[in-house]
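Prompt: Have a read of the protein record below and flag anything odd:
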Amino acid sequence: MSERSISKPLFIIIAIAIPLLIASVGVFFAFKSVLKNMQTSLKNNHHISFTVFANSFKDKEKFKEIMIDFYSMANMAEDIFPLDTTLKGREKALSDVKDIGVYYWNRNIEIIDSLNKLTHSKSVQPKIVVYKTYSTLNKEYYTLIYKALAEGSTKYDTELKAYETKISKLSKEIYIK
């Protein structure tokens, strides 16, 4: 080995560190660009933003608690995916859809209904309706998934796709704005 050669462990560390550093810098700039686009989009948006939505309620702390519950339950309902649709996993999938998915969307409908008790502002009613519609569509979607799994059928695929499209559209309104 000559004096100018790099030891094998140091070479391995350098070979790993440099690509990681380059990837990290790339992710940083990509994220920074996405964040800037989101902020611009939110500034130019004419819909009620989450902050304006929250400020329409007398008890802002209670509103925050309710919305934390809403998003937590939505995440728990969505965490059942992907479903194991094999014969072996079907019973657990059916249970997950009914006992977790449908259950939490029902709870979210109740939570959104409770928002009406916190405000009498007419300006937030459209947003409350969007949240309730979103929860109701998800409940119906999960119920149809349950039916399709129970029957072992694909005859509901078109209807399920229609639900997915509606839910996707509303989720952009709920999660972005």
Notes: DSSP finds six helices and no strands in the chain. Residues 8-44 form the longest helix (37 residues). Residues 1-44 form one domain.
